Amino acid sequence: MERRATLLWLLVALAVFAGFTLFSRLRPAPPPPAPSWQRPVSELNPAQQRFHSHLREQLRVAERERGLTRTWPPTTTDGWPRRSQGIYVNYVGEAEGLRWLVLFIEPDPRAAPEQPPPEDEEHHTLADGTPLHVTVWTQPLEEPRSGLVTAFPAAEGWVERVLR
Predict the structure, then answer these.
(1) Which residues face 39 on adjacent strands?
(2) Tens digit of pLDDT for each residue in 72-126?
(3) Which of 38, 76, 86, 157 is the most exposed place for a label (fewest CB within 10 A)?
């Protein structure tokens, strides 16, 4: 009788352990935290959020021109000048109380051709098949404005604005 009770308790403990292990493996993992330089667009005030949407539309206009003519437009439709160096193309301007930066990164022509990534907020494919990495950044107007082409804006105090 004592053996049976011990065996029963061992089976119950084993079942609980197996259930816990299975639950913890099947449970979806929490999303990874955003890097410290990324902040959601939803944190911006309503006017800044509308401007972000407007800016995203301008990106597509510039991408269409780049895809058709193989060159980036000299300015955005808002008149922001293009700055480029190698595979990095920036447009910087001010609106709604913030400085805004659009960063396009083209593939390195010296590297092996890469497959276009799936289309999402940060990855676009031009009409000619060129994959792009596209990001939008903000910084307070009080920050000093750099005249250099920015390859990694976070190192210069910019905050990437993401939709997620």
Answers:
(1) 161
(2) 999 998 999 999 999 999 999 999 999 999 999 999 989 888 777 788 889 999 8
(3) 86
Amino acid of residue 46: P
CB within 8 A of 43, min separation 6: which ones? Answer: none
The Cα-based distances of 42 to 21, 50, 53, 81, 96 in angstroms read 37, 11, 12, 27, 15
Q: Residue 25 pLDDT > 80, yes or no? A: no
d(CA 43, CA 145): 23
Rounded (5°) CA angle 43-47-52: 70
**Residue 129 Rama label (left phi>0; alpha psi -120 to 50; beta):** left
3-state secondary structure of 159: strand
**95 in helix, strand or coil?**
strand
